[in-house]
Design a protein that fits this description.
alpha/beta; SIR2/SIRT2 'Small Domain'; 2 domains; six-stranded parallel β-sheet; 10 helices; 9 strands; 18% strand
């Protein structure tokens, strides 16, 4: 667990985090929608964003799936189409470069469902809200790679083993994020928590900083504006991920 505070101070936009990390330090990175938005993937929270015209209740809850799986699959098919044309940005590449230096002492937990971290070269990435390019049978439950786009009732996928419906491998509102025990275990081993581009209002991820504070882990936030939980961080580096991360993670 974190045992010391590194030398990061409020408003210190000139810091180089990699210079402050010793051989025993471990970096836990939480990324949110802000980093993907800089690759053109807007979120349902943004005005005119990707989810514009769709209420959460219509496309991103178990109840929505039960009521209209065609609408749900059409929505996620459009998200897949958008994600396929997006490219990793300099913030994704900065994280991947830092991981090459830190190795397994760096862990990325993302709230995003796109594959931009992977395409940038990051290896140790946990998708706590699922993955856009995976699906799973509602009965069998095992996720599998899938980039299909299903726009009509006739094209909806079914399980090859049991013929039950196949759903997006996405954690919807009202469902539990994937493998929280492993996430918390990694957080408890960290000495630095870096949070990038989150609103600070979606739990349990928004509570990671509070756990870090209890464990004595240094905490840094990067984003264009202060999140809802801004007061819980040791340092607030205001700016987009693309503006801040390449310098912050330079080595």
């Amino acid at each position: 667990m974190g045992e010391r505070q590194i030398g990061i101070h409020e408003g210190d936009n000139a810091i180089k985090l990699m210079d402050l990390l010793g051989p025993q330090d471990r970096l836990f990175v939480l990324t949110g929608a802000g980093i993907s938005a800089e690759s053109g993937l807007a979120t349902y929270r943004g005005s005119g964003g990707l989810w514009n015209g769709f209420r959460v209740e219509e496309v991103a809850t178990p109840e929505a799936w039960a009521a209209d799986p065609v609408l749900v699959w059409r929505f996620y098919s459009m998200r897949r189409e958008d994600a396929q044309t997006a490219e990793p940005n300099p913030a994704h590449f900065a994280l991947a470069a830092a991981e090459k230096v830190l190795g397994d002492r760096m862990y990325i937990c993302t709230q995003n469902v796109d594959d931009l971290h992977k395409r940038a070269g990051s290896k140790h990435v946990h998708h706590m809200h699922g993955m856009l390019f995976e699906s799973r049978c509602v009965q069998c439950g095992t996720p599998f790679a899938d980039d299909g786009q299903y726009m009509t009732a006739e094209t909806l996928p079914v399980c090859a083993s049991c013929a039950e419906p196949v759903r997006p491998h996405i954690v919807w509102f009202g469902e539990v994020p994937l493998d929280l025990d492993a996430i918390y275990a990694e957080l408890q081993r960290a000495t630095v928590l870096l949070v990038v581009g989150t609103s600070g209002s979606v739990y349990p991820a928004a509570g990671f900083v509070n756990i870090a504070n209890q464990l004595g882990i240094s905490t840094v936030y990067v984003g264009p504006e202060a999140p809802a939980n801004a007061g819980s961080f040791d340092a607030m580096l205001l700016g987009t991920a693309v503006e801040v991360l390449p310098g912050l993670l330079a080595f």
